[in-house]
C-alpha cells in the first residue's frame, strides 16, 4: 500500500490566510521528505475556513520546491470555470510538472461556490460532464476549434491565424492527458462507475463511513468492465483522517476533544453536509433521525487515532472491511500544534505504513 495525502483544508477562520497557506505548503514539503508518493489539494472560493481557492495555483507554487511527489488538484470544480481556461491552464501546469500532475475533477460540492458562480440552480453534474468533454476535445483536436454545448460554446474559427499560432491551444505534457481522478462522496456512487468506464480512477472521501466506502469497489469493477479494462485495486485511492502520537492520551486528546483540529474539521464538515441534506453519509441506519449525527459520533466513526501499533491495527481492520486498495491518502488537518502534527506524519510514514505493509505480506504468504 502506498501513502499519499489529501487536504481540503479547513483552518480556524481567525488564523491569517498568509500563515495557513504557508502551513499547507510546508505540510507537502514534509510529506515528500517522508516518502509520500502523491498529494491532493482541494479548492473553494467562498469559504472562510477552506483557504485554497485554486488548486492549480497552489500546485504551481510547490513544483519548484519538490522533486518526486506527484501533485493533484483535489479537485477542479468544473462548473465554476470556463472549460477553455481549464484546458489551457492544466496543459501549462502539466508541462511545468513534467509528469508529476494528476488531474482531479468534480462538479463541486460547496453550495455558496455554486451560488457565486451562478450555477446554484443549474444541473451541475451535466455541466461537469460537458466541461470535461470540452477539455478533452480541445486536447485531442486541432485548431480552429468549434465545439457547441448546452452550457458553453468554444470557437476560434473567426480569429484563427495558423501562421502566427493565433487560435491554437497547447496540449498537455502527458499523452494524451494527465491521469484523471474523481472523488467519490456518496454511497453506491454512480459517478465511480461512469468515471471508471472512461478510464479514470476513484478517490473515496475521508468523510464516508467504511460501510459506504466499501460500496465504491463494486461500482469501480462495473465501470471498468463497461470500459473494457481490468479493475485493479492498486488504482483505488482511499482518504482517511488519521492522527498518530507517541502516547495514547495525547492521541485521544488531539484527535477527539472539543477544540482539537479534528473536532473542528468534522464539526464544520458535518454541519455543512447535514444542512445540505447529506446526513445519510454519517448514518449506518438510514432510518435514524438526522439529530443522531453528532460531532462525537462522527469522530468515533471516521477518525483513526492512537499510537503507531493501534493505528496500524485499525488500518488493517479498515482494509479488511472495505477491501484491498492501492493508496492510502492521509487527510490533512489544521496544525493546532505544529510539533504534534509533524510527529504524526513522521510516525505514519516511518512506523505505521511499514507495519501495515508487513501485515499484508504475512497475510498474503499464509
Explain what this protein looks like in three dimensions.
With 366 residues, the protein is an alpha/beta fold. Helix content is 45%, strand content 15%. It is built from 13 helices and 12 strands. It has helices spanning 17-33, 55-63, 83-97, 111-116, 124-140, 190-197, 210-213, 216-227, 248-256, 261-275, 295-302, 308-322, 338-365; strands at residues 2-7, 38-41, 70-73, 76-77, 101-106, 146-148, 153-155, 180-184, 201-204, 237-244, 303-306, 327-331. The protein has an 8-stranded parallel β-barrel with strand order 1-2-3-5-8-9-10-12, surrounded by 7 helices. It has a two-stranded antiparallel sheet with strand order 6-7. Strand 8 (180-184), helix 6 (190-197) and strand 9 (201-204) form a beta-alpha-beta unit. Helix 2 packs parallel to helix 3 (83-97) and helix 12 (308-322) packs across helix 13 (338-365). The longest helix has 28 residues, at 338-365. The chain is globular, with a radius of gyration of 21 Å. The two termini are 18 Å apart.
- What is the string of SSEs from the N terminus onward? EHEHEEHEHHEEEHEHHEHHHEHEH
Gyration radius from CA atoms, angstroms: 21 Å
Average of pLDDT: 96
Strand order of the largest sheet: 1-2-3-5-8-9-10-12
CA-CA gap between termini:
18 Å
* Oligomeric description of these chains: single chain
User: How much helicity do the residues have?
Assistant: 40-55%
Shape: globular
Count of DSSP-assigned helices: 13
The biggest beta sheet reads:
8 strands, parallel, barrel
Structural class: alpha/beta
